[in-house]
């Protein structure tokens, strides 16, 4: 038994001509109007209506990759063109340089037997991560958890080995998507493993299903995958040509950053009281300098300001109560 296909936020997005995108939920995405136009063109740039398409949005932490992608998925044209539409948050498995250095140091100190065991453990983790990604995709498509678990078991109730299990999961994914013009977002991809390489690759009889994630993604019905990543090399490995990659840079417009900031304050049910024109101008300039054009930073600063306003109001009310003798 399966549930209905998972949908991404029931918002209807539209441009308002001021460099922001409004949604029916009242949320506004600021500063991405040109990026939205560029991504829409990338989605349409294919040799035929049925051609598979893989594109990537690449940028640093907090630059707005996921926000831009959600706004794109909530556009009416996208919603009517693609079904199902699913959002898959990818597991973080990339290690920092410091972590890699420490791991190499520990590895060098191990015996040969310990090294073999460590390599086996790493291989098991990689296998588990691959399975987790496919299972997550099946869950987002509405496949019941019990059915997903049953895929890992043979008819005689014996557990499948690693290769067979991943084969079965990817084949199940293929069957769920086959014949559909799907849109899948793989959000925050880190892993540069060959298993993620060339999402446009199609399965044939000489390949095993488990060899690539791409083989679980049917080709020929206009299906699309959008990858978001901080690592351009990983993104390029997955989507191919440079023309399929959109580099997302920090916002250059301080008005957009200010709008993100004030929207966040208002969503926390607080009011920012800056009536003096010079104070407002300086506040915008200061915010832009501090957030560096990063939407996430502007949002976090808005939350911090809302908390400060709330605390100040509570303290003022407390002081007023003390003055009037109320407790």
From TrEMBL:
Recorded hits in InterPro entries, A to Z, give: NB-ARC
The record ties this protein, via Pfam families, to: NB-ARC (PF00931)
MF GO annotations? ADP binding
NB-ARC domain location: 39-126, 143-268
Q: Where are the residues of the annotated region Disordered?
A: 1-27
State any GO BP term from the record. defense response
List each coiled-coil range.
93-136
Keywords in alphabetical order, please.
Answer: Coiled coil, Plant defense
Which protein are we looking at?
A: NB-ARC domain-containing protein
- Record the organism: Carya illinoinensis
């Amino acid at each position: 038994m399966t549930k209905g296909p998972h949908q991404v936020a029931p918002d209807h997005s539209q441009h308002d001509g001021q460099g922001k995108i409004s949604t029916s939920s009242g949320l506004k995405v600021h500063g991405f109007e040109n990026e939205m136009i560029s991504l829409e063109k990338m989605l349409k740039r294919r040799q035929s209506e049925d051609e598979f398409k893989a594109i990537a949005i690449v940028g640093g932490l907090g630059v707005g990759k996921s926000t831009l992608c959600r706004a794109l998925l909530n556009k009416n044209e996208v919603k009517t063109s693609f079904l199902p539409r699913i959002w898959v948050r990818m597991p973080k498995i990339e290690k920092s340089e410091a972590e890699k250095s420490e791991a190499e140091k520990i590895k060098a100190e191990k015996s040969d037997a310990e090294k073999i065991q460590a390599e086996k453990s790493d291989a098991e983790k990689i296998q588990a991560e691959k399975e987790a990604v496919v299972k997550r995709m099946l869950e987002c498509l509405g496949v019941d958890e019990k059915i997903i678990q049953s895929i890992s078991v043979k008819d005689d109730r014996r557990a499948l080995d690693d290769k067979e299990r991943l084969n079965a999961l990817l084949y199940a994914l293929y069957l769920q998507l086959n014949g559909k013009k799907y849109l899948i977002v793989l959000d925050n991809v880190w892993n540069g493993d060959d298993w993620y390489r060339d999402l446009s690759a199609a399965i044939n009889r000489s390949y095993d299903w488990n060899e690539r994630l791409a083989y679980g993604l049917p080709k020929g019905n206009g299906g699309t995958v959008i990858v978001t990543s901080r690592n351009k090399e990983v993104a390029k490995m997955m989507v191919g040509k440079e023309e399929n990659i959109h580099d997302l840079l920090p916002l250059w417009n301080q008005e957009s950053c200010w709008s993100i900031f004030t929207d966040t304050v208002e969503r926390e049910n607080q009011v920012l009281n800056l009536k003096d024109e010079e104070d407002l101008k300086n506040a915008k300039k200061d915010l832009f300098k501090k957030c560096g054009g990063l939407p996430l930073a502007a949002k976090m600063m808005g939350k911090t300001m809302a908390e400060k306003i709330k605390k100040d109001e509570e303290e003022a009310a407390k002081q007023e109560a003390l003055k009037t003798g109320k407790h």
